[in-house]
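Possible regression after last week's pipeline update?

I re-ran a chain I had predicted before the update to compare outputs. Posting the input and the new output here so someone can diff against the archived version. Not blocking, just want to make sure nothing changed silently.
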Amino acid sequence: MRDNLLPRDGEVYLLQDAFSQAELGILQDRLAWRQDEITMWGKTHPVPRLQAWYADEGLSYTYSNILMEAANFTPELEKIRTKLNKLCGVKFNSVLCNLYRSGADKNGWHRDNEPELGINPTIASISYGEVRKFSLRHRKTKERIDLLLPSGSLLMMRGSTQNHWEHQLAATKKDIGVRLNLTFRQRIVLDR
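New output (post-update):
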């Protein structure tokens, strides 16, 4: 990968044109999308995007009290995972898929720091469809980095990034179409 885009406390790399933009339609039509609900500050709302979780057998995922049971990788996702594993030198065993239907769909400030992702997880994020602004914000300094993620691009976050930086895909009032995002992860099994 190219140069680290973070000035400190983690590693973020962007590789444009890593994947075919033609995969958008197939993925949009064939993945098992669902609309979850999330409770924040005592109020329950629909999650402002559609989601799907695919993983090796038995690997569920929980965030913000939303439990996602694993579906088996589709042939399309398996092909992408094989290529991604070679590009990143990592063996990913799961992917959280997000479908942003319009500019109103979003993902607020958060870190991918759930215990089942490990201490310094590697997150490989592939974008398809409309270009959206992806932002990172340092937790202590509040320094902010904005990136435009074109269709077919790969963004990799690794090292201590999830410990020190939050990220988001903010809503926009622009009239834009669909954006699909695949965030591949290494889901670990925790001892209980």
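Follow-up from reviewer: compared with the archived run. The chain has a mean pLDDT of 92. Marking as no regression found.
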